[in-house]
Write a structure and sequence with these properties.
This protein is mainly alpha-helical and 257 residues long. Helix content is 34%, strand content 3%.
Length: 257
């Protein structure tokens, strides 16, 4: 008979089992030749560890053995509905031990990109699900937020492009010019119907050719307004956005500044 699936009944069953063993002497206590558990906190001798490693060579259950797809499906099916770990939280002491034990270890999937099939499955499994931290402002501590920020700052950022964001703009690219661009496009994002009246922020002004010095010298302005959701899109796959937006600007000279 397996453990009950109901978490309340499971806790009660474990307590009954624990209580039933109180005061009982272990069956192998004092029996010479029995194999009691290794003393807690005492490391095994190096010779013993070598013998154990040698005995596992060729063992199909040893580390490195690839579980077949059929076996994985069987394990997955067997664990469906398993409530043993549901709602269980590690103690702070246990979390600290796990953290120290993993210092210096690389994540098992570091450098291994997901296959297209796996990414599609992950995407479908999250359709309709809301992020667990949506609308929660007190999820992370100030220290954690600082660590997360530092981990993606500067050349650590996945969007790092050699520091081009620090390059200066043309001195004529000022607030008055930005306002004229917003007015010319009726204060509406070029890529979507979002207007300034629907947001609390002014529309950003995007350089279609990514040249911050345009407008200086004889180069005409090549600008469009974008909302806070659309503007970050143009920082990825730049050739696509350059081709799309620059061609629009070239075919519509009346929007020049």
């Amino acid at each position: 008979m397996g453990w009950p699936k109901d978490p309340i009944k499971l806790v009660a069953a474990k307590k009954r089992m624990s209580d039933s063993h109180k005061g009982q002497i272990a069956w192998n206590k004092g029996i010479e030749g029995s194999t009691p558990g290794w003393p807690k906190g005492k490391p095994r001798p190096i010779e013993s560890r070598r013998k154990m490693a040698a005995s596992q060579k060729g063992n199909q259950n040893a580390l490195g053995h690839v579980v077949s797809e059929e076996a994985r499906k069987a394990i997955s099916y067997a664990n469906k509905g398993n409530q043993t770990q549901l709602g269980r939280k590690h103690t702070e002491e246990a979390r600290q031990k796990m953290s120290k034990a993993n210092i210096g270890r690389a994540v098992w999937n570091k450098g291994r990109p997901w296959s297209e099939d796996t990414r599609e499955k992950l995407s479908k499994s999250h359709i309709g699900q809301e992020p667990w931290n949506k609308g929660k402002s007190d999820v992370y501590s100030e220290y954690t937020l600082l660590v997360m920020s530092e981990a993606k700052r500067g050349n650590k950022s996945p969007g790092w492009k050699g520091g081009i964001s620090f390059e200066p703009y043309c001195e004529k690219f000022n607030e008055a010019l930005k306002e004229s661009v917003r007015i010319k496009f009726n204060r509406t994002c070029y890529l979507c119907p979002t207007t300034e009246s629907e947001t609390t922020k002014k529309l950003s002004i995007h350089h279609n050719d990514y040249n911050k010095m345009q407008g200086c010298g004889k180069r005409p302005w090549n600008l469009i307004p974008l909302c806070a959701k659309c503007h970050p899109k143009t920082n990825h796959n730049r050739w696509y956005w350059f081709s799309l937006l620059y061609n629009y600007w070239a075919l519509n000279p009346e929007i020049n500044f």
